[in-house]
Design goal:
Order of helices and strands: EEEHEHEHHHEHEHEEH
Helix content: 25-40%
Radius of gyration: 18 Å
Oligomer: single chain
């Protein structure tokens, strides 16, 4: 199991220069994710969720504030392979097999791929794609491609996993199946996870805590604990307490 690392977002602020008017994307966003935790960041479109994630990955410069991952800067964590990321678009290279796509981060970091073949096979099994290691992306369903993207994000044995709407393009039935699979993968790897999502039920099913954002400017307005015991199974989706918590988050989300 991975030795997880904590995430600290401290006072993140960012303003974009718009056409004739500046847009304050983030204002003083602070969030601490303990090692091994699963945190969901939820909010309406345009509230700055993805900007937070990009800043945490070192892809978005900030006006103020700082990010540390296991005490390191995002750039240091990335160079050390301590962070993994999966986006809504799996972005697999169509000419490369499942195994070869998963190996890509190792190549980027200059690590020997041959020595990692056992880990790549283990990850393929972990995400439920055993015997598909030679398949090309065009031969896979959307859900399968997202499984490959998650395996690719885990191949460097990261201590932190960032997920930006990884199932946003999937239908509701498949999305719930992938939620269940992601919970299993998280439990087996122990990696600290920060999930950006629009789905309230997805956030409550997966996370230990849900950080709710609002827009104009983008900021966290409340952090809500999820008390449901783990492991969580599909029956949770029909539990009255689950729906009560989803309703509570919806009220906060919409400014009630």
């Amino acid at each position: 199991m991975t030795v997880p690392a904590g995430i600290v977002l401290d006072g993140l602020s960012k303003t974009f220069a718009g056409r004739g008017q500046a847009v304050e994307a983030l204002r003083d966003v602070s969030l601490t994710c303990g090692p091994g935790s699963f945190t969901a960041l939820i909010g309406p479109s345009g509230c700055g969720k993805s900007t937070v994630l990009r800043a945490a990955l070192g892809l978005e410069p900030l006006d103020r504030g700082r990010v540390t991952i296991g005490g390191q800067t995002p750039a240091e964590a990335t160079r050390g392979g301590l962070t993994g990321v999966a986006f809504q678009d799996a972005a697999l290279l169509p000419w490369r097999s499942v195994s070869q796509n998963i190996a890509l981060p190792l190549e980027v970091l200059g690590r020997p791929v041959g020595a990692a073949q056992g880990r790549i096979r283990d990850l393929i099994a972990l995400v439920g794609l055993k015997d598909r290691e030679d398949a090309l992306p065009g031969e896979l369903s959307g859900g399968m491609r997202q499984r490959v993207a998650i395996a690719r994000a885990l191949v460097t044995e990261p201590r932190v996993l960032f997920l930006d709407e990884p199932f946003g393009a999937l239908d509701q039935i498949l999305r719930r199946q992938m939620n269940i699979e992601l919970q299993r993968i998280w439990a087996e790897t122990g990696v600290t996870t920060l999930l950006v999502t629009h789905g309230i039920d997805e956030a409550v099913f997966l996370a230990d805590r849900v950080a709710v954002m609002r827009a104009a400017p983008g900021r966290i307005v409340e952090i809500i604990d999820v008390p449901s015991a783990r492991p969580r199974d599909p029956t949770l989706f029909s539990d009255p307490a689950f729906h009560h918590l989803c309703d509570k988050i919806a009220v906060v989300l919409h400014g009630g």
